[in-house]
Protein 1
Amino acid sequence: MSGPTSASPGRWARLTWQVEDPAAWAAALGRRLGLAPEPLDGVAWRLGLGGEPLDVVPWLREGSNDHPHAEGRLVFEPVSGGGAAPGQVPGAGLALVGVAWSTVELDRAEAELDPWLLARDPALGDGDAAADPHLGARTRRRRTDALPGGALVLAEPNTEGRLAASLARDGEGPCALYLAPAGGLDAWVAGARARNLQLSARRPGPLGPALLLAGRTVAGPHILVVQAAEPSTIAS
């Protein structure tokens, strides 16, 4: 995938969630998030996350032993030539404000991904280090307008936790979504509990206070719901 250029701005990747049964998983994920998925082509489904689409698509085998995982995997799929950046949807129930990228070496990953990252501006927190206790990771935050979410959270394991499990199963790549509810975290938590969802305690993280939406496997993909004000400032 060639890198972005100033002459052709926009998204150079789309965010997909590969699973064995897209229809069933999109419905289940929509119930967990309080969103209604929309059919795309009879096979794939889309969940709108504040204008950033998350496409639930069939599992694409990368080898004879590449079998679908219980909860699928997140993938940045290249957009040839770049595509238009999505417009934000004011008041959307949940907005994608960041994607975590798992790696075993922060410096190397940041250097490799630099063509898709904005120039560092320390005043906006670019390059800031923070722990993510939900993932069991040390992180580095970078803004991006070429990749979905507006913020890429480079994450390296610092415990034998969720991020380490993601790396062991899937290798390096997108492993977690950071979502911000328009109505605030407290209101979203109340709705999630009414849907009988299992939630973690609220803990500080690279995009602000967050809680983890529990999944069926420790390897994820992981969903973190964050306080809306902090990540929207980062992504601006």
Note: Residues 11-83 form a domain with the 2,3-Dihydroxybiphenyl 1,2-Dioxygenase; domain 1 fold (CATH 3.10.180.10).
Protein 2
Amino acid sequence: MIDKLAPYLPEAALMPCYELIKVHGVHLKIVNERKTRHGDYRLLPGGGHQITINASSNPYRFLITLIHEIAHLVAFVEHGRRIQPHGAEWKQCFRNLMVPFLHTEIFPDRLLRVVARHFKSPKASSSTDPDLDKALSEFDSWQASELFVSDVLIGELFLFRKDRLFKRGLLRRKRIECVEIPSGKRYLFQPNARVILAPKSDGNNT
């Protein structure tokens, strides 16, 4: 298991994570990246605990996701099925499990400050905290053409998930309103959504 984990975690987090996996009897699966989630926890039919995590070249994102899912396991064991998936019980478990990792031997100082702030009230996903997601993205593998939707100029066209064309609109509170081309439907994007600028052609911004 340690050899399986080593490519994905900060070195100083490897043994503490291994101990958590062992103590809680986790069956860990590392899979190719899924667009809709970073990880998930499920109770197996025989009573075992399975956690599935996306393979990631970003060790800090992998670590936070792993502890996020172990917190689901602990919250389930301690409080049962009736709790909200990301309610108060899960948040407390997540904070308690994460505290031992919040130091500069594991996180770079500039990232640690953002991570510590996030854990005052953890969200359902690191992607729904734009400040944390942007800080973590510094350590992701980026395609050269990728950028955040917040960096697209108003009126410019961009591709989302490679094949859906949108025109960037105005910021509406915390999200950016964009219009899908050609359907005309309006969608609200998190500012930290990754997109690719559409190739420019004559009249494509009209």
Note: The longest helix spans residues 59-79.
Protein 3
Amino acid sequence: MNNMQQRVYWPPNVSGWEGGMSWLNTNTVQGRFDLVVKAQYLKYSNHYSGATNYPADVVGETPEAVFQRAYDSVNAPWLSDATRARLLASAGELPAANVSGTKAADITARRQRFYALQAMMLGGPDGQVM
């Protein structure tokens, strides 16, 4: 929260933090993206439950299908048409798009593609201002 310039229980005044674009700068953007990555780590790691909670591994998943699965998993945030198009293109360009085996490296690549899409949906420019 400190990296996002929002100290918990310490707002700048009685009305809280300013809204809109006033809180958006290069430091806070990085802080918010880092928070998304840390939240993903906690969600999928064995940190709390003692068991790793990996997302499903779908062999041969199309870019559209992995995009939709990632989008649904983060509660369908608002995405501009341009962001949606770029994320769909990224889903097809990331290394996992071309692997179909069940080797550990292939499974890891598919998971990383899923994680990257989630992070870009939540921590990307649309997630920062909406």
Note: Residues 2-129 form one domain.
